[in-house]
Amino acid sequence: MTPDARPLLAIRGLTKRYPTGDLALDAVDLEVPPGQVMALIGPSGAGKSTLIRCVNRLVEPTAGEVRLDGEEITRLGRAALRRARRRMGMIFQEYALVERLSVMENVLSGRLGYTGFWAAWFRRFPRRDIVQAFRLLDRVGLAHMADKRADALSGGQRQRVGILRALMQDPALLLVDEPTASLDPKTSRQIMRLLVELCEERGLAAIVNIHDVALAQEFARRIVGLRQGRIVFDGPAEALDAAALTRIYGEEDWSRTIRRAEAAEEEELA
Amino acid sequence: MSLSAAPFDAAAAARAWRPPPLIANPWLRWGVYLGALVYALVGIGTVEVNWTRAAEGLERGARFLAGFFPPDFVTKREDILEGLLESLTMTVVSTAIGIALSIPVALGASRNLAPLPIYLFCRGVIAVSRSFQEVIIAIVFVAMVGFGPLAGMLTLAFATIGFMAKLLAEDIEDIERSEAEAVRATGAGWFSWIAWGVLPQVKPRLIGLSAYRLDINFRESAVLGLVGAGGIGDTLNTAFDRYEFDTAAAILLVIIAIVLACEYASGWLRRWVQ
């Protein structure tokens, strides 16, 4: 890590109150250093989705500031916001591919922030972008699917395309919203592994919203727990114990959920 | 939780269960049924039918229809052909212009894309376009630009905007939000966002509606001739005026053939884009 260790993303006092009156985020402070993959866990409705959407302002925050690489996102005008969004790749729960476009078009759509309207309208992307897209497709084993329509792919394949679309933006930060929520356990692991590998290769930071606590512990070193719009846990994956889970989710028998972490500890002791 | 209450009797509950009715309140439900019945009876009672006049009319109608046979395609061949070409030109040009203009109106009339003032304005355009029947609009345009196919073309283009924009806007309001959101998250500008996140989702509907409107416009073009807005309707009107029922029959058959062809073509097109 850089010696000055300036955070890539710095969130201060971020608050979101929806017009319905629901307070989704309550003065959240959070810093993410460059290259860190961070898991954001919490019960449904805790504000995880709102948090990452406030970072790229798909949801407008009510108060607080968000700095990416020092640039204050919440005050940007439209054009500057679009430029800032290019640096934040987003990956979605139900993949959110444009189903009627081909795999290649979906991957290339990650370049739309860099492409003028007419070039985008006539699908005329620079050769460099197309080469890059094929490289990435080959990296995840989907090069032969380039001209298939997105809705012809399986869940795991679609999510890979979703990841590539985000990578095409050449981002510094990935905002990942429940990437495995619609996938089976094996595919979930593959997708999480791929995400973490790609982040390491490219030095990307990521905020990963995730429901599955075991998966979060397995793939992220840092875990942040959100409850009712407030951060109630922030620490390394190993520190997430029954007490912490109770703080995040409420009272429940957590002994089996955290068994894996404890088993690892016992092994170390032995 | 073992209280003293009797165990739940599923069989009894099942006997008592009824599927929920369409209208929950029984008074309202039976009121509506009864009201509909009374209205129908009263309605039927007020229609005066003069059976002798109807019988006479049948005979007169039969003579009228007999005049149609055999259809004469030959005598007025050139008039028919000219009217037909005029109608087809009118149809194609007005459909193309109407669709081109309806797309921006449809985007503006979608609540999920447009801010409120633009939305209200575009909905207003649609309402105006849809509130008048084509014949009425044609009369206005004939008065404005004179007799002939230009008036018909303007009429059909105007009517196309309302029709297409309304139905397309409905489809745009139903798009998969997450897909559009994903394209926005890439930093795409507004136009790119529309072109990549919205249009691909409504393209099948757009093409289907366009094909459908083409065939509506052709049928309408046959009617518009009656008020002097050009096309095959003019030719048909002339044929009736001159009591050339055999020629009129030929024209009607041609119209039917073309509408059928349009129908098959648009059905095929819609299957293909799906």
Mean pLDDT over the residues of chain A: 90
Tell me the helix content of chain B: over 70%
Numbering strands along the chain, what is their spatial order in the largest sheet of chain A? 6-7-8-3-9-10
- Give the CATH topology of the largest domain in chain A: Rossmann fold
Description:
The complex is a heterodimer of chains A (270) and B (274). Chain A has 270 residues and is α/β, with parallel strands linked by helices. Chain A folds into two domains: 1-87 and 174-179 and 206-270, P-loop containing nucleotide triphosphate hydrolases (Rossmann fold); 89-170, P-loop containing nucleotide triphosphate hydrolases (Rossmann fold), CATH 3.40.50.300. Chain A is built from ten helices and ten strands. Chain A has helices at 48-55, 78-85, 103-108, 117-121, 127-139, 155-168, 185-202, 213-219, 242-249, 259-269, and strands spanning 9-17, 23-32, 37-41, 63-68, 71-72, 88-91, 173-177, 205-209, 222-227, 230-236. In chain A, the strands form two sheets. In chain A, strands 6-7-8-3-9-10 form a six-stranded mixed β-sheet, sandwiched between helices. Chain A has a four-stranded antiparallel β-sheet with strand order 2-1-4-5. In chain A, helix 6 packs parallel to helix 7. Chain A is globular. The relative contact order of chain A is 0.17. Chain B has 274 residues and is mainly α. Chain B has a domain at 90-273: MetI-like fold (Orthogonal Bundle), CATH 1.10.3720.10. Chain B has eleven helices and no strands. The N and C termini of chain B lie far apart (56 Å). The model of chain B has no long low-confidence stretch (mean pLDDT 88).
